[in-house]
Amino acid sequence: MTLLRCITYLSPSLPEEVFYLVTRHLSESLGIECSLDFETRYSGPQPEDDPDPFTAGEVDLGFMCAPAYQWLRDRPSNPVVLVPAAPVFEHEQEPTKPVYFSEILVRTDSPARKAEDLIDAKWVYNDPCSWSGYYSVRDRFGARAGELQMTPSGSHLNSLAWVLSGKADAMAIDSNVFAFARHRDPSLSRSLRIIEALGPYPIQPIVLRKAIAPERLSQISEALLSMHQDPTLQGEMAALRLRNFSPVSDADYQDSCG
């Protein structure tokens, strides 16, 4: 195997630079070429995709939201395996764990003070593959989820724009995405208010096409778990709020995200 074909479903919400850095590191560590494609319409392969790009043999490694991984894993063909390593981003609440929170946002002038105040609000979400933007909200409201008015925007960043402009009243966002957005635009901290943080949830998984040799899975995992030890990468990782990679297993994605 001389080429590892990678795809991320998590940009532009998470910066492209994160995935360029990780795939560059994998290329250098494994001694093979890595290509990187971006799918910006959804947070992962759709349930109805037949065949999906992993089953079709078009993609080898993928970064995606947990629901999409579960859909792939539950297929009769089960075309992917979990890479047992996941990123740990800087976070005030859980700074050393591979998790994120789903933060419910409203404008600062909103009268809402708790999630229950938003049952009749106009909600916006990124896409129907997303746990942070979509399923976490439905899970939070439980039996009343069917009452919610929820409209897709295409990305977390689009959802932010909708709430800021008044096109929508509320949204839920991956806390890491919101941290990156506030870093780029500090005014967001003054314009938007977090009224509830759901979670923590396991960070979005990395998956590998099952047909690839198990030795390659081990090599990829080892390269990621030791990435923070490379002094030539530490500055770039810090700039991207990426602390390190931490071990994960399928058990982490069983019950808390779909």
Can you lay out the helices and strands and say which pair or pack?
Blueprint: E1 3-8, H1 16-30, E2 33-38, E3 61-63, H2 66-73, E4 80-82, E5 86-89, E6 99-107, E7 122-125, H3 131-141, E8 149-152, H4 156-165, E9 170-174, H5 175-184, H6 188-191, E10 192-202, E11 206-209, H7 214-225, H8 234-239, E12 242-246
Parallel strand pairs: 1-2, 1-3, 7-8, 7-9
Antiparallel strand pairs: 3-11, 4-11, 5-12, 6-9, 6-10
Textual characterization of the structure:
This protein folds into two domains: 3-89 and 204-253, Periplasmic binding protein-like II (D-Maltodextrin-Binding Protein, domain 2, 3-Layer(aba) Sandwich); 99-201, D-Maltodextrin-Binding Protein, domain 2 (3-Layer(aba) Sandwich), CATH 3.40.190.10. It is 29% helix and 25% strand. It is built from eight helices and twelve strands. The protein has a five-stranded mixed beta sheet, with helices on both faces. Strands 8-7-9-6-10 form a five-stranded mixed beta sheet, sandwiched between helices. Strands 5-12 form a two-stranded antiparallel sheet. It is globular. The chain starts with a strand and ends in a 12-residue tail after the last strand.
